[in-house]
Predict the structure.
Amino acid sequence: MKNKNYRARVVDTKLEALLRVFGGVLIVGPKWCGKSWTASNQADSEVFIDVEENKTRALLMPDAVLDGPAPRLIDEWQDAPVLWDTARRRIDREHRPGMFIFTGSAVPDFPGGEKPSHTGTGRFAKMRMRPMSLYEEKISNGKVSLSALFDGKSFQPCASEMNFSKALHLICKGGWPASFWITEENASMIAPQYLNMVINEDINRVDDTKRDSALVRLFMRSLARNSATPVKATSLKADVAEREGGDISEQTVRSYYESLKKIFVIEEQEAWTPSLRSRSRIRSTPKRHFADPSLAAAALGATPDILVNDIKTAGFLFETLCFRDLSVYMDALDGNVFHYHDKDELEADAVLQLPDGRWGAAEIKLGTFEFDYAAGNLLRLEKKLAGETAPPSFLAIITASGGMAWHREDGVFVIPIDCLAP
């Protein structure tokens, strides 16, 4: 159901490819990130299960709801989980690719704790969507391709329009597609309203458990304060109790955290292990990120004017923005974004790895004053891992400063975030 006003997404090509192979594609991700818009652009019919009438029909007559020209979009399917097995059986029966696109903004709570009789392996492919990257928003000029860097290609120095002030505004605005139709000033209202819906409604819909909204808000504020760090549940519990005066157990912290993961508000950046025979002892705790930096900013009550006087917090939120964009780009390459942290406290903010094992490492820095330290850190990492794994395809500093993308004499690339593309 092609939409002439559709804004192209990086995942479009991947969705087309998956529909040529699998009977169905499951698209997951946070609300408002554009899943339905993207799916509808490639679907020939659609049904929205969050409409009460459609939900009732789906629960009573799931086969009838699946009827329609293919690919058929089944939006917010988790509201009627019976549709999963019904669609899988139809795919088994008809043996056709591209029959269904399922979209969901929550991991479904199956009635009575029951799981579907089959995971859908071989029938459904799964694809994650996130809020829009700067490249999708046409803020990035896309002159530095990650794919080309992995292929050993350099790039011509190119100008960047990014600066510290602009980065702070992009952090607080976020990558929500709805911002295309409103002014930048009004776009800043999206994340706080999104956060309120998560706190008061969405987190309770995960398993129909009523949670204390005030305590959830305190927890999310603590999580935002620790954005882009490998914070543990015990630390979050202590932070809420000591700084905010909230009485919360570690079990409750874990419950809140898992619920936020189920609605894709939180995403984990796993630790990278160079190789199975690596001698390095790796700290394996994942970093915690909000799905979009604007949600972390909203949880903190931060605005660009506030962040300009809190450089440390701004740096962590900028790292979450970069993780969002790098994840979008690496998904297009079927790769992953990890972080590195070993027992000797040697770290890398992002390790990008392709399925064939090629990898690159990046440090994420807001200001130019950190470039020499960041480059030295990356070169120490390369030296330490020599002989344990293949050499990195590239080393890079990803930044909001510097005015251009260029190649340092020590071999490390400097890449403003508004120059990157898949």
Q: What stands out?
A: The first helix runs from residue 12 to 19.
